[in-house]
Design goal:
four-stranded antiparallel β-sheet, 4 strands, 125 residues, alpha+beta
Length: 125
């Protein structure tokens, strides 16, 4: 399976894989807001996973949130919840007052990897 991604609900640009240029690496940090209200954050791996998580469920072994911890495997987390989550770049999420769940994010046509330079020129740091 190749790369795939989703567009951030705030800026409508894709959440990038970790293999993209350093100038836009902030776009690899993502936040998911689940329909149930949980907020998950970390680094997107380009293949449907969320690694290096920083959310409160990352180390949780609470039965209620069993599938939100690393036991599921970070490679499955985003893909597992895609229909029940709104996906944001973490920076966009924070700069827009932490919006909640507003529906499923659309699939990114550039797959979070095959970037047209002109589409991301305004995102370069």
């Amino acid at each position: 399976m190749g790369f795939f991604s989703w567009n951030c609900k705030c800026c409508d640009k894709s959440v990038l894989s970790p293999y993209c240029p350093n100038e836009v690496d902030w776009m690899n940090k993502m936040t998911m807001v689940l329909k149930t209200g949980e907020v998950l954050s970390g680094e997107y791996d380009g293949y449907g996973g969320l690694g290096n998580r920083s959310d409160k469920y990352a180390e949780s072994y609470d039965y209620k949130h069993e599938d939100l911890n690393e036991n599921m495997g970070p490679e499955q987390l985003v893909l597992h919840y895609e229909e029940n989550a709104t996906i944001y770049h973490t920076r966009c999420y924070e700069e827009n007052d932490k919006p909640g769940f507003v529906g499923m994010s659309k699939s990114a046509s550039d797959q979070g990897f095959f970037l047209a330079e002109e589409d991301y020129a305004d995102c370069v740091e």
